Amino acid sequence: MSGDSSTLSWKVVATCGQSESSDTSQTTVAGDGGPTKIIKVCFTSNSANLGKNFKLVRCHEGMTVRNIISAVLSSGCVGPNIQHSLCYGLLLKHLKSAEVHWLHPNLTVSELQLRYEQQHLEAEWRYDLRIRYIPADFIEKFKEDRTTLLYFYQQVRSDYMQHCASKVSDGMALQLGCLEIRRFYKDMNPNGLEKKSNYELLEKDVGLSLFFPKELTDNMKTKALRKMIQQTFQRYSCLKEEECVVKFFTTLADCYDYIQESFTCQLVVSHTHSHIYTLTHTHTHIQYTP
């Protein structure tokens, strides 16, 4: 999204949406706390709408990251009845590099501008709402908060599809993909995928790429792939939506540590020479007691 010029802008807008705005004009608006800045926070959707979702938040310079997160969650855009609001954080991504920054909840908008935004063009930054902190027994705790459970599921599944799906075995990819099919089509008859019309709807209108890695769909013959998907789907055809989510987490844990995230960082050593060492820092989702 390097051409997304509405990630940060100075204009009078505050709404939710699923598509990019073509209005790239920028104006300064006087507010109670001085000029107000519009920050676009991107988030994943728990609905069947697969489009990009975002919330435009009007901020003054003294507003904190925690305030921005609260504005998004309280708007209802993410989902209803959120109980674990402290689990959410803001990740700032530079769209033209691998640069990312987890933003401290107490960081103000003015500090954010000085520390990060001035390093690159405004349109090159994106704010992502992500689950940053999780309870020790998150599956049980999140069952009391369906919105956060599904949000974390969508986040983990998206990370899996981007970074891990191409590396797992065909059997594992089939299991995880069929669990998402069952969750996605939660009202479908348990034997519904056996019908040719239903499978063709899945294959052509929705697309197998939503559920399975390209390596699996490209390397297997069409009839063989269809048979494997139908057979694997039968194992999960009677599961309810939340049961699919829990089964996905427990199955994925066998091949992918979704509790940890790794980031590349640099360490400069020496006062006289710029010796730069590139390191990989592994971060575990911080656990908290609500």
TrEMBL record:
Pfam families, sorted: FERM_M, FERM_N_2
InterPro entries membership: Band_41_domain (IPR019749), FADK_N (IPR041390), FERM/acyl-CoA-bd_prot_sf (IPR014352), FERM_2 (IPR035963), FERM_central (IPR019748), FERM_domain (IPR000299), Ubiquitin-like_domsf (IPR029071)
Localization per record: Cell junction, Focal adhesion; Cell membrane; Cell projection; Cytoplasm
The keyword Cell membrane appears for this protein: yes
Enzyme class: transferase
UniProt cross-references to SMART domains, sorted A to Z: B41 (SM00295)
PROSITE patterns registered for this protein in UniProt: FERM_3
UniProt name for this protein: non-specific protein-tyrosine kinase
One Gene Ontology cellular component: plasma membrane
Keyword Kinase included in the entry's annotation: yes
Main location: other
Keywords: ATP-binding, Cell junction, Cell membrane, Cell projection, Cytoplasm, Kinase, Membrane, Nucleotide-binding, Phosphoprotein, Transferase, Tyrosine-protein kinase
Any one of the GO BP annotations: positive regulation of cell population proliferation
GO molecular function: ATP binding; non-membrane spanning protein tyrosine kinase activity
Boundaries of every FERM domain copy: 37-290
PANTHER family: FERM AND PDZ DOMAIN-CONTAINING PROTEIN FAMILY MEMBER (PTHR46221), NON-SPECIFIC PROTEIN-TYROSINE KINASE (PTHR46221:SF11)
Superkingdom field: Eukaryota
EC number annotated for this UniProt entry: 2.7.10.2
Membrane topology, as annotated: Peripheral membrane protein
UniProt-listed SUPFAM superfamilies: Second domain of FERM, Ubiquitin-like
